[in-house]
Amino acid sequence: MGHVRHFDLIIIGTGSGNAILDERFADWDVAVVEKGVGSHASYGGTCLNVGCIPTKMFVHTADVANAPVSGERLGVELRLDEVRWPEIRDRVFGRIDTIAESGKRFRRDENPNVTLYEGLARFTAPRELSVETAGGPTTISADRVVLAAGGRPVIPEIPGIEDVEYHTSDSVMRLERLPEHMIILGTGFIGAEFAHIFSALGVRVTMIGRSGRVLRNEDTDVSERFTELAARQWDLRLNRRETGVERAGSGVRLHLDGPEGAESVEGQTLLVATGRRPNSDLLDTIAAGIETAENGKIKVDSTQRTSAEGVWALGDISSDHELKHVANHEERVVQHNLLHPEEPVESDHRFVPHAVFSAPQIASVGLTEQQAVERGVRYVTATQDYGGIAYGWAMEDTTGFAKLLADPSTGKLLGAHIIGPQAPTVIQPLIQAMEFGIDARSMARGQYWIHPAMPELVENALLGLPLD
Ligand SMILES: Cc1cc2nc3c(=O)[nH]c(=O)nc-3n(C[C@H](O)[C@H](O)[C@H](O)COP(=O)(O)OP(=O)(O)OC[C@H]3O[C@@H](n4cnc5c(N)ncnc54)[C@H](O)[C@@H]3O)c2cc1C
Ligand SMILES: NC(=O)c1ccc[n+]([C@@H]2O[C@H](COP(=O)([O-])OP(=O)(O)OC[C@H]3O[C@@H](n4cnc5c(N)ncnc54)[C@H](O)[C@@H]3O)[C@@H](O)[C@H]2O)c1
After folding, report:
1. What's the mean per-residue pLDDT of the chain?
2. Ligand 1 pocket by C-beta < 6 Å: which residues?
3. Which CATH number is 161-274's, of 3.30.540.10, 3.50.50.60, 3.40.190.10, 3.30.70.20?
4. Where are the domains of the chain?
5. Of the residues 32, 83, 333, 422, which has the fewest C-beta atoms closer than 10 A?
6. CB within 8 A of 421, min separation 6: which ones?
7. Is the ipTM of this structure higher than 0.90?
């Protein structure tokens, strides 16, 4: 073997991993390794390039395109005249690609203590990695290694899948043109968000799921309501199994088995949104003595340390929560623990919220009612409809609600679930209350709630809790 360059620190992955380095690391000799994500092998990880940021730029555009639907119930007649897809796509990626490129330039050219390796890294020994760069393989080692290598879409083993063209979230946002009909496989976050994006932009959407509900990990009331509303907007086919897929003209034909027997569906574009898996296999973590769970997630302790000396992990590669705000939180924990090994801090995963930016929107934090039952927790619930608050009247909303779970004796919130307009924003005071331990009564009556604004949904839900 040739020369092995040794560093103080190696960081694999430039999603949340990229944020570790600040001026406090100026005298550390650091290697950053990035293979690139998406069809343009971009720098900066999933969220920026093929995840949160572009999807939400498309979601906002889709919400605007959907205005005729909400206008109709208000007596305002609007018409969607034209969707200029190439212009929308190029606006989104014109901005994102520039940010990714300048992020890379900054690390490569303006950080004298950082060496950027562009290529796939793989462990060859504990804290030693080989990187496949364009100029050939090179080996690096370090005293400390941070694994922030994220995950990638899972492709289910459907007979014929290798012979047809399909998309994942990595490629579908850069489509050349909008198809007339898109088949979306999977009813999770990604399926629900893209179904909204593409249908609002005029694409006919067929959504296929294995279970009887869309977003089935949400609180059952929320998931049932969302499933009802999804079926009104999209050709929703639940309780289905894919038995095969083949080319049909320039598109695909998918064969399914379902409640009514065998059926098939044809579409121009197939989007596979059936979950993601961690990239630990690409790293050959076994060579480095790093323990992984059965699902491939790297095992970490509460300070984000792996089972191997001097190796930390954060974000999608190790976390049960595949969410950017969690990856960022864990990144700050790793950053602190690298700088202050004698005073390590722990990650806080008690109240991790999430949101689904579909139509309608959903936001959630804490226990669902099903989890409360399973855990034998004593709880009470309250549900407040948007239709029962002044701003909900203004919007003529008839389907949205907030559902709270609380401990009846202390009044402390156990969970909050909102489905409806601006749910990801409206839920924030509930997240705050849970994190800081504010009980429902003090929260409802201990502050002003702007009238007649949307957070009155939260105020009324809190007042509805039948506490002891
Ligand atoms: C379509 C979509 C929408 C999403 N929307 C949201 C949202 O609205 N809100 C939210 O909170 N979360 C969202 N997420 C999830 C969020 O994007 C992830 O949780 C987050 O980006 C994870 O960050 P990370 O740093 O762990 O990994 P990543 O950002 O994936 O970074 C890992 C990096 O490591 C690189 N890499 C991997 N293996 C190697 C290797 N062996 N050698 C070199 N480099 C390697 C990869 O190329 C990648 O750049 C979304 C995800 C998707 C796919
Ligand atoms: N707004 C957000 O925060 C946001 C948005 C998108 C993605 N994400 C993150 O990315 C992760 C991955 O998203 P996702 O939607 O791919 O995963 P997911 O786990 O949310 O949903 C995948 C769905 O596909 C189903 N499935 C699996 N195999 C299937 C098959 N063969 N046929 C049909 N359905 C099948 C699963 O049962 C599941 O319902 C999410 O869990 C989330 O953490 C977050």
Report:
1. 97
2. 12-17, 33-37, 45-47, 50-52, 55-56, 120-121, 148-150, 169, 190, 279, 282-283, 315-317, 322-325, 327
3. 3.50.50.60
4. 5-153+277-339, 161-274, 360-463
5. 83
6. 360, 361, 386, 395, 397, 400, 454
7. yes
